[in-house]
């Protein structure tokens, strides 16, 4: 029997929240059968099909597809190819461990819809999908070609957007679904995680003067990173109007094997949030590596996957159309799929209803009024082309 389709954007968001799609990386906080994006992607594909789009599932990893919908488009009056735009939220959520509300309940009370993903980012996705459904008759005659892409894996590694950018881009514009309080995030910081290793010489703990303590070497380096390097980031990357300056957080440290052995190895993991200015000046990894080498020639830096800043020109005509519809431009300290599409040549922004303050929380919710406003906004944006 075919599933009952939602009657409004709130019911659509409830349906999405009630489909577990927890990112399996790390500790998902739920049984394995509740991880992965397949069930959510299938539901979205069916909704897109009912809305007149041609929908396909593209596996990026086993059992973890992107969902792509292409709405029909009639030839333009001048015979020229239409610009292509894509609405692109993500279908995965973070862990549900420690939640104080039923993570897949989708309950509506107190003017809020509760559950994992309600804010990040099944609420924005519902607003986009509902607007596309409402506009299904008008979309073919718009002077733009309209697509939808639901990305897997945004909450870890961003594999879905990277796969899409390589196989389907570039587009003329991408609207990434994130809870931005319906503001147009045209800039956001990038992120570099890196491990810094110091080495020493292990000896018996009773004669430490005969060895070299890697922890002590790291302590000196930490002092430098926490003072001189922070200033260096400001000096090199500058102050961004929307994002401020690049930052470094010293997040994890481990070293040694036993208390009675002088430590011959120590590792510090750092989290750097980077501005476009720092990227233009050589990038976080280069600047960090050079600083560490200058301070301790025997230390080394091992980079983990890096995400890049977003720096879409606020004068881009697509951005200005969003602004004209009421979504003022802003920046964000977090990163999202927009950066990967932009790096592959698609001007991109992030926008959606709901607040980032509620994302990933133990009692995640989105206000139902915000959901309705989000759907209305995306309808307005689409109608602005008519």
TrEMBL record:
Domain Peptidase M20 dimerisation, first and last residues per copy: 187-280
Molecular function in Gene Ontology: hydrolase activity; metal ion binding
InterPro entries, per the entry: Bact_exopeptidase_dim_dom, Peptidase_M20, Peptidase_M20_dimer, Peptidase_M20A
Domain of life where this protein originates: Bacteria
UniProtKB keywords: Hydrolase, Metal-binding
UniProt keyword Plastid present: no
Name of the protein: Acetylornithine deacetylase/succinyl-diaminopimelate desuccinylase-like protein
